Amino acid sequence: MGKFFHSVTLDKDSCKGCINCIKRCPTEAIRVRGGKAQILSDRCIDCGECIRVCPHHAKKPIYDSLEVLEQFDYLIALPAPALYGQFNNLDDVDIILNGLLAMGFDDVFEVAAAAELISDCTRKLLSEGLLKKPVISSACPAVTRLIRVRFPDLIENILPLIAPVELAARMARKKAMEETGLASGQIGVIFISPCAAKVTAVKMPLGTRKSEIDAVVAIKEVYPKLLSYMKQVEDSPEELTRSGRMGISWGSSGGEASALLNERYLAADGIENVIHVLENLEDEKFTDLDFVELNACSAGCVGGVLTVENPYIAKAKLKRIRKYRPVSCNRIEHVIPREAKWEVPIQYEPVLQLDDNVFTAMQKLTELQEIESRLKGLDCGSCGAPTCHALAEDIVRGYASENDCIFRLKEYMQEIAHTISALESALPQEYRTGEPQDET
């Protein structure tokens, strides 16, 4: 296993040792030890669920500061479709795009436009019948990483196309180099992201060797600055948008799937719902589906932890914006472009296995089951692990003991008390009270 980068971090000074985060983590990547949470780096998929539920704001997302814009000679903004759903009473996407230019960007390339190309590529791949069905979207990096560590049998079902934002970055950089004559290193391709997992996808990409995105800034950081610039251009915005309803719809749950023009699809959002769907897929309970769209965040990308608007309100705003747009503005010619395809296959990351040696792993599994049978099965989290099974696993790995369970500790203390009582009963009378006996 290589070195891990994570866009979700822990501020130990703010952590109070509560167990909200450990109960919601989809890969059981958090423990509470010594009164503080600990993130298990190899298990974390950067979904941001712990950021969402931490009442003390001890979990924090990492993203680039807006100061990164000063590092390049030529700046290209890649606005996510979710950005469009953050503003009130907005009917024209061009106001946002012109606002970004006024803010200091030299060019804007919509991720929504690249999303329409990915949709077109997906339709073509499905029509060729060469993919294992149901095909699972590869757009959400948190879901892809979840499959990689927890559902390895479904890796073959993942759509072998890069995410729209990566395609947008490649196309935008190529266009800028041709138009300006600048070297690649002088051009800054900046993604305006709703989601922390996208930061990880840039630093440690899956399906491609290197990301073409130079920096990822948060929607919540761009939003207040962009508002003032949008007011300056709202009266006469230049026509810049190159995306239609299909591309903009990618910003909320169901948008990617509906763009396939195929009714045999399923769309689910929210990490718990995603896990239920993946479990059912693994058990082959869905037999009549062609495509499955999964988003780790509730309501889709508009529900990311780097946004400002309520996800369901933002979803409604996207519906309003897209109704004024044509169905789609972007199509591939005939052949799926090479730059849209994966360069390297996604590999299973065996972070959940008990040992590299199969025989040793089976022995540890037997030991784990024996330990778990002695626990109460309440999954209370008081031990610092999310479930009794997770505690048993920690014990087998040598990270915890059975006495970390408060119920097992109580039983152990009672056993000690009974033993002391029995020993005291077996002592001669003169030794029980510690007082000398009267010899008369």
Overall description:
The protein is α/β, with parallel strands linked by helices and 440 residues long. It has 3 domains: 8-61, Alpha-Beta Plaits (2-Layer Sandwich); 66-340, no CATH class; 360-426, Electron transport complex subunit B, putative Fe-S cluster (3-methyladenine DNA Glycosylase II, Chain A, domain 3, Orthogonal Bundle), CATH 1.10.15.40. The protein is built from 16 helices and 11 strands. It has helices at 20-24, 49-53, 93-103, 111-128, 141-150, 164-180, 197-203, 219-233, 245-249, 255-258, 271-282, 311-322, 358-374, 388-397, 406-426, 429-432, and strands at residues 8-10, 30-33, 36-39, 59-61, 74-79, 107-108, 135-136, 187-193, 215-218, 265-269, 291-295. The strands form 4 sheets. It has a 4-stranded parallel beta sheet, sandwiched between helices. The protein has a 3-stranded parallel beta sheet with strand order 7-11-10. Helix 7 links the parallel strand 8 and strand 9. Helix 3 (93-103) packs across helix 8 (219-233), helix 4 (111-128) packs across helix 6 and helix 13 packs across helix 14. The radius of gyration is 27 Å and the shape is elongated.
